[in-house]
Amino acid sequence: MTTESLPTAAEARHLTKVLRHCGLLGPARVGGVTVANAFVKQRSHTRRLRLSYEGDAGNAPEFLILKMGHLDSAGRSAYTNQREVAFYRDIAPSLPVGVVPRCLEVVESTDTTAWHLLLEDLSDSHFFGTEHPLPPSRRQCESIMVAWAKFHAAWWDDPHLGAVVGSWPAADWEQYLHTFVREFAGFNNRYEQVMSPERRALYERLLDQGPRLLTRLHARRNLTLVHGDAHWWNCFLPRDGGGDVRLIDWEGWSINTATTDIVYMMAMLWYPDLRRQLERPLLDLYHATLIAQGVRGYDRQALDDDYRLSVLWLILRPVGQAAFNIPPRVWWPNLERIFLALDDLNCRDLVAGR
Q1: Positive or negative, the Cα torsion across 20, 25, 29, 31?
Q2: Which residues make Cβ contacts (< 8 Å) with residue 340, sequence separation at least 6?
């Protein structure tokens, strides 16, 4: 347990108000708040708050999760986390119960206030399946794949996409490709030992063929909301072994093909042995779940086609990670694994127009 001073969002009076507003607390009130533990990342600070009550609190929660930015001396955060704030404000309320943690309060960043998210604590009922970078068990992978399919299906070709929620991805990708040219040049100058002439030529062909490949996104069909950082450790698994998987950390969501998420989980993060063993059956399960959730006009071949195209696009990610100063111990294995998947799935053919 830490003894740090509490931000305003964690004060007892404020939490009492929030819990009453959410119907989780009656006449009792929060009497004390301590930080049970904390998790500090580059741009955010997450605290697990332990609450004590004055009066009969019934089933009011003993713990809550408070996520916010790092505060300066004026009590503001340079990082506004606009994407995740928007997700919990505008998107999460429309999702089926149990897809993401319940958010009790969303406060966006302004000139006078810092952003924060107050979330239900699932630590007692859920856990991360493995220690990074070890893969989950096959049964856990299946549960996670079903959870992603349910989330993707909930927003599949939703009429609000691009109009009320998010922006259409083709224009964003076209803009990023111009930025990537500079990132790639810097990467080649600094890390030429991992970029063979053959690989460099593939990137150049991808940049050349990019406008043609982006016609898939210009069609604005069979698109959905994607997480953007869908690794296995952004999935909270139920301790009882059931299917109540919760998806967390929504700082990078966007509109795209659903395979953007599942390619990242398998093609980029798994070595060939495991990927070759589980990739096909997990894709079969994923597609079957999409259909069971009401997705139509998207057959199994379409999933394979999108998967291969997403693998090809994902070779850009390690270069971007390096440009963002993510250490080589992260981006280099990602680079090698995604190229192994690229060759297994014959994705080079896509830039040759075959």
Answers
A1: negative
A2: 271, 272
Q: According to the model, what pLDDT value does residue 3 have? A: 58
Tokens 């030529």 locate to 201
Quickly list DSSP for 256-290. Answer: E-THHHHHIIIIITS-HHHHHHHHHHHHHHHHHHH
Q: What's this model's pTM, rounded to 2 decimal places?
A: 0.95
Buried-state track 236-264, b at ≥16 Cβ within 10 A, e below 16: bbbeeeeebbbbbbbbebbbbbbbbbbbb
- Six token digits for residue 210: 């990019």
Nearest to 337 by CA among 251, 275, 250: 275
Tell the burial category of 112 from Cβ atoms under 10 Å away from its Cβ (0-12, 13-18, 19+): exposed
| Rounded-to-integer distance, Cα 86 and Cα 90, Å | 6
Confidence of residue 200 (pLDDT cuts 50, 70, 90): very high
User: What's the CA angle centered on 156, arms 155 and 157, to 5 degrees?
Assistant: 110
Whether the per-residue pLDDT at 1 is higher than 60: the answer is no
Domains in the chain with CATH codes: 8-120 (3.30.200), 126-352 (3.90.1200.10)
Task: Mention every residue, 6+ apart, whose C-beta is less than 8 A from residue 45.
Answer: 38, 39, 67, 68, 69, 70
pLDDT-based confidence at residue 354 (cuts at 50, 70, 90):
low
Q: What is the mean pLDDT of residues 225-243?
A: 96
Is it true that the peptide bond before 272 is cis, omega within 30 degrees of 0? no
pLDDT tens-digit series, residues 85-104: 999 999 999 999 999 999 99
Average pLDDT for the chain: 96
Q: How far apart are the first and last CA of the chain?
A: 59
Q: What's the DSSP call for residue 88? A: I
In this structure, are strands 103-107 and 126-127 parallel, antiparallel, or unpaired?
A: unpaired
- Which tokens in the block code for residue 196? 């063979």
